[in-house]
Amino acid sequence: xxxxxxxxxxxxxxxxxxxxxxxxxxxxxxxxxxxxxxxxxxxxxxxxxxxxxxxxxxxxxxxxxxxxxxxxxxxxxxxxxxxxxxxxxxxxxxxxxxxxxxxxxxxxxxxxxxxxxxxxxxxxxxxxxxxxxxxxxxxxxxxxxxxxxxxxxxxxxxxxxxxxxxxxxxxxxxxxxxxxxxxxxxxxxxxxxxxxxxxxxxxxxxxxxxxxxxxxxxxxxxxxxxxxxxxxxxxxxxxxxxxxxxxxxxxxxxxxxxxxxxxxxxxxxxxxxxxxxxxxxxxxxxxxxxxxxxxxxxxxxxxxxxxxxxxxxxxxxxxxxxxxxxxxxxxxxxxxxxxxxxxxxxxxxxxxxxxxxxxxxxxxxxxxxx
Length: 370
Prior knowledge:
three-stranded antiparallel β-sheet, 14% strand, 16 helices, Rossmann fold, alpha/beta, formyl-coa transferase, domain 3
């Protein structure tokens, strides 16, 4: 049995971190119902986002009284309520935390937004790059002399938003079941999560061990032993030999001058070491280097494309991908048992919602069953 078996999640449709969090709840055993907006315009085709799979989909007009009534009828059977709207949007339609908890005080209410529910910017629009910018982390990324470079939308949206939403859901279920907590609300702000992920950088900065100039620091490509190098076939290899014992093995494996080992943390030697490594790695192809370094402690790996990553023997042996997409439940033993995606009518029946009521909503356009 998976850890969230028996948990039912109601996901108010959003983009990015919300769907991925809902999908992870599913992969951990929960039943997920996604409520889609009939007037939504998709930014990307739905079939391009694997996080939108694995749930029961319905479309409900939440601007109508009947639509809200349907949600209210469902709430007694909802364990986690996940939404990603700006502050007060849910309150205005009658689905804010107080509204939900007046029906079910044990529903875990997760509010997943970029800025949080208060602070001054809470009503401003934004995306990953904006939250990353305000966190201070964006200023650390990219090359000196050019604008900061956002790492796709991995950090604020997914690393922060999805991660802390999932933690909130699991924490909420625990508090309700074990601490008898009532009316649980979790305010997940993506910019805060990114700041937390960057805690080490704040510490290094305060200790005088992280400079403002990008690309000159220990973990941003400045160190010759923690960066990527081009190979003979115009591909790349990633080097992460931070610890002295790993760096020593790297130098010995490459048959480089042994004095480089003692010079590892000498900042004034870094540029010459980069030149040395650059020349060496250009002498062989990426895969040749990969074969040389496999099963060593040199901390050197090939930089793979998405398609190559799916076919690499290590993730293949671990079943890291399911149906050719990454899976979020590989840390649990019972990962292979897939929860059944129920028909929404079956769920309505379990929740004792009148068939006549459902048929009436379908007829007047409030509800569309997918």
